[in-house]
Specification:
about 45% strand, Immunoglobulin-like, mainly beta, globular, single chain
């Protein structure tokens, strides 16, 4: 009986397509990475550069979102930039009590930017990373 089950699983694995993770390391470095919060119609587009204006690859952009009644719901999102220093957040809430603060970091460099989605639902930011203050 065990042999039949093992053989059935082996045959099934031959014919099933391989599963892919949402983020793969072989992703196209030119396509713009997008993360969808799924909680509203707003978005934020980012271009991350260094002090000389050159794009920064794989800079991490993070945001903590507290939303709904009494900010009882919370969501943390993170996305990395592509080779052109670009990344996008979609599905952001239209209203937040305190706005959204996006933190950007890569190595020892960091930056941040504030957005009030009630005023700028489709925001666009260019952030030049500087050294971390100690």
């Amino acid at each position: 009986m065990f042999t039949i089950i093992r053989n059935t699983i082996a045959v099934a694995m031959l014919f099933l397509p391989p599963l892919q993770a949402q983020t793969t390391s072989s992703a196209d470095p030119q396509s713009i990475p997008v993360i969808d919060g799924g909680i509203g119609p707003c978005s934020a587009d980012f271009t991350v550069t260094d002090a000389t204006g050159a794009p920064v690859y794989d800079a991490k952009i993070r945001v903590h979102i507290a939303y709904r009644f009494m900010n009882a719901h919370k969501l943390d999102l993170e996305v990395g930039t592509n080779a052109a220093g670009k990344a996008r957040f979609t599905g952001l809430p239209e209203k937040t009590r305190q706005g959204l603060v996006f933190h950007v970091s890569e190595g020892s460099r960091e930056g941040s930017v504030f957005d009030d989605p009630a005023k700028t639902c489709k925001a666009t930011f260019t952030i030049a990373l500087g050294k971390q203050s100690q």
